[in-house]
Amino acid sequence: MKCNGMEGDSDLQFLLQGGDLLKVLSPSWKKTRYFRLMEDCKTIWRESKRTFKDSTTFSLDDISAVRMGRQSEGLKKNTKDQVEGRCFSIMFKGRRKNLDLIASSEEEAKQWFTSLQKVLSNRNHLNVQQKTEHCLRKADKNKDDKMTQSELKNFLRLINIKVDDDYAEMLFKVAPSELFEGFLHKCDKSKSGQLAGEEIEHFYDLLTHREEVDVIYGTYAKTTGFMSPQNLVAFLMTEQREKVTLADAQNIIQKHEPDDNAKEKKLLSKDGFLMYMHYPEAMVLHPDHREVYQDMSRPLNHYFISSSHNTYLMEDQLTGPSSTEAYVRALLKGCRCVELDVWDGSDDEPEIYHGYTLTSKILFRDAIKSIKEYAFKTSDYPVILSLENHCSVEQQEVMARHLSSILGSALVTSPLGEGMPTDFPSPEELKGKFLIKGKRLNKLEASYAPEAAESDDTDVTEEDESNNEDEDEQKEEEKRKMKKKLKLAKPLSDMVVYCKSVHFTGFEDARRKLSFYEMSSFKEKKALGLAEESANAYIHHNMDKLSRIYPSGSRTDSSNYNPVPLWNAGCQIVALNFQTTCTDMDVNQGRFLVNGKSGYVLKPAFMRDVATEFDPITLTRGAWLKHKTLHVLVISAQQLPKVNKKKSSIVDPLVKVEVYGVPADVAERQTAAVGNNALGALALEVQCPSHDVGWLVERRLFQQGAGVMPLLLLELLLLELLLLLLLVSRIFGPAAAAVGRLSAVLQPRGAAAAVGAAAPAAVVPGLDHAHCSRYSVKAAPAAVK
Questions:
Q1: Tens digits of per-residue pLDDT, 405-444?
Q2: 3-state SS assignment for residue 708
Q3: CA distance 445 to 448
Q4: How many CB atoms are located within 10 Å of the residue 662 CB?
Q5: What CA–CA distances, in Å, run from 506 to 217, 527, 571, 618, 661?
Q6: Beta bridge partners of 337
Q7: GO annotations under biological process (predicted)?
Q8: Domains of the chain and CATH, by start
Q9: pLDDT score recorded for residue 675
Q10: What is the Cα–Cα distance from 661 to 568, expressed in whole angstroms?
Q11: What does the pLDDT read at residue 684?
């Protein structure tokens, strides 16, 4: 048994031995079950205590998190406070229900929690080679350290390669020339009908051979077939455009070189080089941008803000479950604006759910507790609580009490500094703080109403969940006037400082009548119409105010919309359904992957310049306009996940490259699908001009300062987002896509032939923030589907 270096670890031994835990389903259903980790160090096995015992298993890879204490809805509802320290929950990916458990003592609960956390962390750090070796061990059913043909077939199936009997026999005895460039390698040298020892290693080497990496490695491995620290520095500086020292190169060798002899001599083997290229250090994302690197001292509305819609939902908005776990997941992804849809609940406790539907309910106070605990785990920068308030005055006061008692001094209840502010504070000034977005009594009413006063709007809610997208403005106005006038509790009103919600009546009205802290929310269709018809006016509106965009009420399946056109118009809070994995969420996650995953990305200078004439639709002339050409050659992809979760399913991968930006820049190309292959080097053929070895995407870019950038995205959306996110199969999710030779440092139009001729084969240039010069052999597993 091998568990990635954990052999003999006390926490691992605890899990392998296992023990009894109380499984909780309801206040009356609590049953003892025996749990233990199986010898593969991947599978948890559970057995009941009934006379006719049954057992089930689940994989560690299916676990998204382990939570200590009564944090899940099930434990809060079905257990009492006295067992708080003995409880823990296993949270699963996807739609599988949580596993709520109670240990016999607090010490035992902590041991389970600590041990599971350690093993999960260990699995998350497995590299591609280690995962493949793990599959080899798993395929060895009788654990005799030998592999029969049927076991090898099972191994290939585990890594997404399907073979029939004839093909398996051919691969078992001789490596097919079409896969291994004509080299015939016999694995079964002993002619025993099974592989053992070096034969298995040889089989593995054949299967994982990466010729495209050989070419790159061979160019710089000048020291007797190895890379010296000096060779590695040359590669990193020439191809990756990284600023590194000899000490940096030596650290990389010490971290990634698997051969102890090579490591002792400070040399990097091909295996070590490949391991390095699979680690985050080699991502196309600029290394400096994994940390906060932008100016965070500008007003809050100068930033794009990662934002969630219906944050409390785990699934669709008709029948899906509401959960505090949904807030936890969004916040851990860096979301900085979450939504709370609050209604009157029983026992005078406000509840959160999607009104007039069959979604389940959670307590408002539980949601605030979860938000408080996880708000600043990923980012220190402020969190906006967007309140959709449907409550009576009495329960609004309960809301205010919970906000005050739970969030304490972290809740902003008055303007920062002395006197009335004239602009937003910065994210830096608001670190660790919570802002409330909602309705607020006007100053006069707030001054004279001891308990409550009418809102300056006819209702205290803001989002319109109507499915009728075609109502004109007159009907909308009549509808608002007909709404029952609700009262707004002063304690809750007073908590709204920098994000006062008001109805939008036009850009000119907003400019003349609204203060900087008064903001509007726009349904997606309305916002997209403004972004297309009045983009420059929208950009100017967002220079001194905040705008929030939310999905149409017709999206009952919690689907999403493309956020890019709204970012193009300078909209800061473009709220998406984080619970739905899709291309739109991929783009959103990519946008906020930079700047240390802080959830705040500084808008381009031309979107903050009061004199700007920029229009993403008409592409007005200006300093931002600069023509560039981008060439991309996709070399290979590997370890693609299965679309179908069935063990027998096989991936036929393809790679799609999509460019997002202003309408003139939108483009996509894709390779041909490669049948029956998800592990090794793929022949990803694309149509291309005869003078270029890759294929061409020719787009406009826009300039900010000394750097070249696509509209709206400081990080060069073309590469730092798209080649980070979307240079993977759309089946696809967390693919480790090898991006070979993203060749052509961006050139002016008309230079395509020169670029193709000048770029040496299989070289891997890269892209940096200012000069478009950093690339990588590997795209990141940026979004899980």
A1: 999 999 999 999 888 888 999 999 999 999 999 999 875 3
A2: strand
A3: 5
A4: 22
A5: 59, 12, 15, 21, 26
A6: 307, 384
A7: intracellular signal transduction; lipid catabolic process
A8: 10-125 (2.30.29.30), 129-208 (1.10.238.10), 211-282 (1.10.238.10), 300-607 (3.20.20.190), 625-758 (2.60.40)
A9: 66
A10: 7
A11: 36
Give the active site residue among 209, 302, 354, 541: 354
Residue 254 is inside which H or E element, if any?
Answer: helix 246-256
What are phi and psi for residue 740, nearest 5 degrees? -90, 150
- Which residues carry a binding-site annotation for Ca(2+)? 310, 339, 341, 388, 650, 652, 676
- CB of 576 within 8 A of CB of 308? yes
Whether residue 423 contacts residue 516, with contact meaning beta carbons closer than 8 Å, is answered with: yes
Q: How confident is the model at residue 367 (pLDDT cuts 50, 70, 90)?
A: very high
Is residue 541 annotated as a catalytic residue, yes or no? no
Q: Whose CA is closest to 783, among 583, 606, 560?
A: 583
At 408, list the tokens: 């304490």
Q: Taking Cα atoms as reference points, which of 516, 662, 541, 540 lies closest to residue 609?
A: 540
pLDDT given at position 347: 92
Q: What is the pLDDT of residues 177-207, one digit of tens each?
A: 333 333 334 677 777 777 777 777 777 676 6
Single out the residue of 341, 410, 340 nearest to residue 381, CA to CA.
Answer: 410
Judged against a pLDDT cut of 60, whether residue 702 lies above it is answered with no
Instruction: Look up residue 411 and give its DSSP letter.
Output: B
**354 catalytically annotated:** yes
pTM to 2 decimal places: 0.76
Do 735 and 781 form a contact (C-beta atoms < 8 A)? yes
**CA 289 – CA 304 distance, rounded (Å):** 16
Known binding-site positions: 310, 339, 341, 388, 437, 439, 521, 548, 650, 652, 676
Q: How far apart are alpha carbons 743 and 630 in whole angstroms? A: 8
For the chain, how big is the Rg over CA atoms in Å?
Answer: 29
| pLDDT mean across residues, the chain | 77
Which residues, 6 or more positions from 318, have their beta carbon under 8 angstroms from its beta carbon? 354, 357, 358, 359, 556
DSSP H helical segments within 315-468, as ranges?
324-332, 364-374, 393-407, 443-448
Cα–Cα dist 764/276, whole Å: 14
pLDDT tens digits along 100-141? 999 999 999 999 999 999 999 888 766 556 666 667 777 777
Annotated binding site for substrate: 437, 439, 521, 548
Helices (H) and strands (E) in the chain, counts: 25, 29
Of the candidates 549, 546, 543, 544, the residue with the CA atom closest to the CA atom of residue 563: 549
Query: By percentage, how much of the chain surpasses pLDDT 70?
Result: 70
Which residues are bridge partners to 387 per DSSP? Answer: 340
Chain centroid, CA 658 distance in Å: 18
Residues 68 and 61 sit within 8 Å (Cβ to Cβ): no
- Active-site annotation holder among 278, 309, 540, 541: 309
What number of other Cβ atoms are within 10 A of residue 125's Cβ? 11
The answer to whether 442 and 490 are in contact (CB under 8 A) is no
